[in-house]
Design goal:
By secondary structure, the chain is α/β, with parallel strands linked by helices. The chain has helices at 16-29, 41-44, 57-66, 71-83, 95-102, 119-126, 141-153, 178-187, 201-208, 226-230, and strands at 3-9, 33-38, 51-52, 55-56, 88-92, 108-111, 131-135, 159-164, 190-195, 213-217. The protein has an eight-stranded parallel beta sheet with strand order 5-2-1-10-9-8-7-6.
Length: 233
């Protein structure tokens, strides 16, 4: 049976009450899990002024600080989600956020596409014994193979690979759902789909090819921020 992860990211903008509403919205959709992002601005971005694509790095840091939830708030959110039958988890983007997440007893730990070769972070996550869900966006098959081999070398078989197109959003025609079967055949593990399309057709189709997990981003507000602009799909 396919499991549905509703991706909330940081679309609560650091507002605890809004985060609660996101959890309630996920409950109403019938999804199995809600996933946030845990970003510690100081461990994700190098200090100083430098070019950061089309963005002002100071503005990026500011938005990350404003979207930060306290440890106490996260603990309350995870407990609330569990109490209504929607287990909560998150994507950690470094060791500080990973340690914080572990204390919240998540059902799984999500590894972002950009961290598929962040082996020291992955190893620390492996040591928890918690299931890992690893996105493969922007990675070649060889990149994925290296990570799978690393997982096996550490005695970890408790993981799911997520096929992911790292375009936000992308047209359904770009979904390349056949790659799910490729990952299944190459690595003999459970494979899911991280759906960045605007519609639901791709998610329905991945169910037909035995995808085990579907991740879908949602939002329930009108305020637009950088993370939300990436996650309107």
């Amino acid at each position: 049976m396919v499991k549905i992860i509703a991706e909330a990211g940081v679309n609560h903008f650091g507002n605890y009450s809004l985060a609660l509403k996101l959890i309630d919205a996920v409950k109403d959709t019938g999804s199995d899990f809600i996933k946030f992002q845990m970003i510690d601005e100081k461990e994700l971005y190098s200090p100083g002024k430098y070019e950061y694509g089309n963005y002002d790095i100071e503005e990026v840091r500011k938005q990350r600080r404003e979207s930060h939830l306290s440890t106490d708030e996260l603990n309350k959110l995870f407990n609330y989600a569990h109490s209504i039958g929607i287990p909560a988890t998150a994507t950690p983007f470094g060791f500080i956020s990973l340690k914080q997440l572990i204390k919240l007893n998540p059902p799984f730990i999500k590894i972002a596409s950009g961290d598929i070769n962040f082996y020291s972070l992955i190893e620390e996550a492996i040591q928890t014994g918690i299931k890992l869900i690893i996105s493969t966006g922007m990675s070649t098959l060889k990149d994925v193979e290296k990570t799978v081999n690393f997982l096996h070398s550490k005695g970890c078989d408790n993981f799911v690979l997520m096929h992911c197109i790292s375009v936000y959003p992308h047209h359904e025609s770009m979904s390349q759902l056949g790659y799910i079967s490729t990952l299944q055949k190459e690595f003999g593990c459970d494979v899911g789909f991280s759906d960045h399309t605007l519609g639901s057709t791709a998610s329905w189709c991945c169910n037909c090819i035995r995808s085990k997990v579907d991740r879908k981003t949602f939002y329930a507000i009108t305020k637009i921020g950088r993370d939300l602009m990436q996650n309107i799909h």
